[in-house]
Amino acid sequence: MKLNVTPSTGNVFRDLGFRREEAEHLLVRADLMIQVQKLIASRRLTQKAAAKMLGVTQPRVSDLLRGRIDLFSTDALIDILARLGAEVRLTVFGFYDSAT
């Protein structure tokens, strides 16, 4: 049996068929959400305690911890990280020149 393997683009959302621009937005949001989840876990915060610290409802924290990426904008995730005391910096890893 021959197995066909397609190399990854490096962006799982692109690999799933999202347009390049949308895939980049989704990847940034996913990375930010993972950092929020890690900070909440490392501080051993309950959903209720995290909600109070973040100024949101407990169900909103539940959405964060369940990875509901569709419910959070990049700005909202950056705000949440700032409330958790994180310093957020954006790094661009390449340049795409559509003219070439």
TrEMBL record:
Gene Ontology MF term list: DNA binding
SMART domains (alphabetical): HTH_XRE (SM00530)
Recorded superkingdom: Bacteria
Residue span, HTH cro/C1-type domain: 36-93
InterPro entries: Cro/C1-type_HTH, HigA2-like_HTH, Lambda_DNA-bd_dom_sf
Name listed for the protein in its UniProt record: Putative small protein
